[in-house]
């Protein structure tokens, strides 16, 4: 009988902790960058890009290569701006 009185509050506490931690996981950004690739890439080798969330501590762009890799790069780098411009132009011309 004493074990039942002890188990129910412990179970309720564990469920509350699980619910709280699960809810906290969904609140943050899915992908942030903390290290950056500084080596310029050929724009023809990049197939897509995505900007990271504004909630990340460092602004970044994720480049997806033709080989399927994702690279974190600085959005302020001149070569990154050229790649983004190239991809945007390619997307506009293919949608016409």
From TrEMBL:
Subcellular location: Secreted
UniProt cross-references to Pfam families, sorted A to Z: IL8
InterPro entries tied to this protein: Chemokine_b/g/d, Chemokine_IL8-like_dom, Interleukin_8-like_sf
Tree of life domain: Eukaryota
Presence of the UniProt keyword Hydrolase in the record: no
Gene3D superfamilies associated with the record: 2.40.50.40
Keywords noted in UniProt: Cytokine, Secreted, Signal
Protein name: Chemokine interleukin-8-like domain-containing protein
Annotated source species: Oryzias latipes (Japanese rice fish)
Gene name tied to this protein: LOC101170161
